[in-house]
Amino acid sequence: MSGHLMILPILIPLVAGAVMLLYDDRQRRAKMVISLLSALALLACAVQLLVLSKGSEATGGNRIGLYLLGNWPSPFGIVLVLDRLSALMLLVTAVLALASLVYAAAGWHRRGQHYHSLFQFLLMGVNGAFLTGDLFNLFVFFEVMLAASYGLLLHGSGPQRVGAGLHYIAINLAASLLLLIGISLIYGVTGTLNMADLAVKLPTVAAADRPLLHMAAAMLGVAFLVKAGMWPLSFWLANAYMAAAAPVAAMFAIMTKVGIYVILRLTSLLFTGSHASTGFGSEVLLVGGVATIIFGFVGVLAAQGLGRMAGHLVLVSSGTMLAVIGMALGGAGPGLVAGALYYMVSSTLALAALFLLLEPMGREQGSIAAMLALTADAFGIDDEGPELGLAIPATLTVLGLCFAACTLLLAGMPPLAGFVGKFAMLSSALNPANIAFRNDVTPAAWVFTGVLLLSGLATLVALVRVGVQTFWANEDDVPKVMALEIAPVIGLLALTVLLTIEAQPVIRYMDNTARALNRPEIYTNGVLQAARQREALQ
Amino acid sequence: MELTLAIAIGILFGSGVWLILRPRTFQVIVGLCLMSYGVNLFIFSMGRLRMGAAPILTKGAEIDPSRYSDPVPQALVLTAIVISFATTALFLVVLLASRGFTGTDHVDGKEREQ
C-alpha cells in the first residue's frame, strides 16, 4: 500500500475535481465538503510522505521514493520521484490549500462557477510538478496547473481580472513554448528526458554538443524564471496577483515556488559536481535574483494599494530564493540553501496569510453581502441568502495582530520565523564553513546581505505605513469579518510560530535536504539503481 | 530537407514573434498559434529527419534501430499539439470576455490616445 502512496497527491485532487464536475454548481455545500476532504487527505499524505522521505540511518537519512507509472523500467518509462525536497513542497502546498479552501468557504467560492473543481486541478498540477521525474511530464503538469490557474484567476470576473488574465495567459503560453523548445533540444542532444538519467549522461556529452545543451538549459531556465517571477520577466506578476480573488492569490503564493523548485531541482541535478557544465547559470541567477529583490522592494515602497504591495513582496521572496540558488551553484555550500528553504516555507505561509488578510482589511461594512447578492443574481443562483456565519468580536484587534505578525514575518524581524530564516541564510552566506573568524567573504555574499537587509527594512516601512493608515487612522467603519475568514489566517500564522519554536528540527530537516541536493548521486542512484535492483529480483 | 524545414520553422516562429508584439488581441492569438506550429515542427525534427521510416518496431524479429525513426518526439508532438490547442481555445474565450468588458480589442483594454 505504501508503494502507491506516492501517486495519491495527484490522484486525490484529480478524482475530487472530476467528481465535482458532475454536480450542479448550486450544490456548493457538497462540493465544499468534497474539496475540504480532499485537502485534508492531501495533508495526511504529504505528512506521511515527508516522514518516508527521511529514510533511516541505514539509508543515510534519505530515501528516494520511486513510482513506475506503467511499470516500465526507470530510464525508459515515466516515473514519479519523491525526495526530501519534493515531500517538503507537497506539505506546504497541502497546508496552503486547506487554508485557502476554508477561506473560500466563507463566500468567495460562490462568486463564479466551478471554483472547487478548478482548485483541485490546480493542486493536481502543482503536486505533479513536484513529484515528476522526467522533463516532459513536468511540462504536462505545468500546463495542468496553468490551465487551472487561468480559470481561477478569472474567478469572480470583472474587467480588472479579465485584463490581468489576458496578459497572464499570453505570457504563460509564450513561456510554455520556450519550455517545449528547451525540452526537445535536451532530448535531441542527450536522448533522454528522465532527469536522473540526464544527470548521469550530462558529463559524457560531447564538447561540440555542449553549447546546444547550454542553450536548451537556458531556454528551460527562461520558461521557469517567468513562473518564478525573476526581473525582468516579472512585470505580469503584481497585476495578476492583485487582481486575483483573495483565496486564489493565497494559493498562487505557491506557484512562483513551483518555478523556484524546478530551478533548484534541475540546477542541483545537472550543474553541480565537476564536469564541463558545472555552475552553469550561476551568475545569471545571482544577478537576476538580486535585481528581483531590488525591483520587489522598490515596488513595495512605491505601491499605493496593499494588493500591489503584496504582489511585490512575492517578488522579494522569490528573488531571495533565486539569488541563493545562484550562490549555491557558484559553490556556496548547503548551509545557505538550508536557510533559504526555511525562509521559503515561512515566507510562503506569511504571504498566503497576507493575501487572505487583504480583503477583510479593505472591506467596508456589509459590502461582501451586497457583492454576493449581486453575483448570485448575475448567475441566476437562488441561494438561501448569503451564509455570513459568525462574525468575530474585536475585529480590528484581531486583524491588527494578524497584520503585525505578517509584517514581522515578511520583514524578517525577531521573534518570528522570518528572522530565523534570514539569520540562517546570512550566517552561512558570511561564514560558509562555520569558522570563528573569516576575512574572505565573497563580494556576492556582501551584496546579497546588503540587499536582503534593505528589503527587510523596506518591507517594514511599507507595511507599517499601511497598518497605521488602516488600524489607527480609521475608527469609523469597522469591517465585518467572519470567523471562517480569519481562522485560516490565524492557522497559517500559528504554523509559522510553530516553525519558530521548533526551529531546530525544521532546520535540521532543511539542512539534510540541502546536503542531499548537493549530492545529486543520491537522487540518480535512487531512481536508476532501484529500478535495476527490482529487475534483478524478478 | 533539413534546410527547408529549418527555414519553415524560422518563418513560422519569426512571424509569430512579430504578431504577439502587436497591440490587437487577435494578432496575439494568431501569433501564438504560429509559434506553436513552429515549436511542434521543431520538436519533431529533434528525432532526426527520416524519410519513409516507421516509428513502430515489428515484434519478434531482430531489430535494427537505425532503420526506424524515433517514436518519442512524435509522441511528444502529439501531446504538445493537444495542450497548445486547448490553452489557445481558453485564451480565445478570455479574449472575447475582454472585448465584451472593454469594447476594444486592444491588449491593454484601452486604445492608445492619439
TrEMBL record, chain A:
Xref: InterPro entries: CPA3_Na-H_Antiporter_D (IPR050586), ND/Mrp_TM (IPR001750)
Keywords (A to Z) from UniProt: Cell membrane, Membrane, Transmembrane, Transmembrane helix
Transmembrane segments: 6-23, 32-52, 89-109, 129-153, 165-187, 212-233, 240-264, 284-303, 310-330, 336-358, 388-410, 416-437, 444-468, 480-501
Topology relative to the membrane: Multi-pass membrane protein
Pfam hit, one: Proton_antipo_M
Compartment annotation: Cell membrane; Membrane
Any single Gene Ontology cellular-component annotation: plasma membrane
Taxonomy, superkingdom: Bacteria
Domain NADH:quinone oxidoreductase/Mrp antiporter transmembrane: 133-431
Described function: NDH-1 shuttles electrons from NADH, via FMN and iron-sulfur (Fe-S) centers, to quinones in the respiratory chain. The immediate electron acceptor for the enzyme in this species is believed to be ubiquinone. Couples the redox reaction to proton translocation (for every two electrons transferred, four hydrogen ions are translocated across the cytoplasmic membrane), and thus conserves the redox energy in a proton gradient.
PANTHER family for the chain: NA(+)_H(+) ANTIPORTER SUBUNIT D1 (PTHR42703:SF1), NADH DEHYDROGENASE (PTHR42703)
Record-stated family: Belongs to the CPA3 antiporters (TC 2.A.63) subunit D family.
Full protein name: Monovalent cation/H+ antiporter subunit D
Organism: Cereibacter changlensis JA139
TrEMBL record, chain B:
GO cellular component labels: plasma membrane
Domain of life: Bacteria
Keyword terms of this UniProt record: Cell membrane, Membrane, Transmembrane, Transmembrane helix
Gene3D superfamilies per the UniProt record, alphabetical: 1.10.287.3510
Keyword set includes Cell inner membrane: no
Pfam families reported for this sequence: Oxidored_q2
Transmembrane segments: 6-21, 28-47, 75-97
Entry similarity comment: Belongs to the CPA3 antiporters (TC 2.A.63) subunit C family.
Protein name from the UniProt record: Na+/H+ antiporter subunit C
Biological source species: Cereibacter changlensis JA139
